[in-house]
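User:
Note these tokens:
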Amino acid sequence: MALGNILRAAREQKGLTPNQVADATHMMVQIVEELEREDFHRFAAAIYGRGFVKLYAEFLGIDPAPLVSEFSELYAGTRR
């Protein structure tokens, strides 16, 4: 699974821009874009990233559980 690709594809399928997602979820647009690039440097702790992934996935109507799990593995460095 590719967390960023799944989020980007679902967003694009709904015809949404990163700015629209950011406005609807109250996340910064940089967070939306970084999640899609799987660039997690902005998150001081995994709990923040898990929350953003869950929020983004739920907004798009995707089951957040597998994406949150993948984020945790990527963030911890146990998965590339």
Summary: The chain has five helices and no strands.
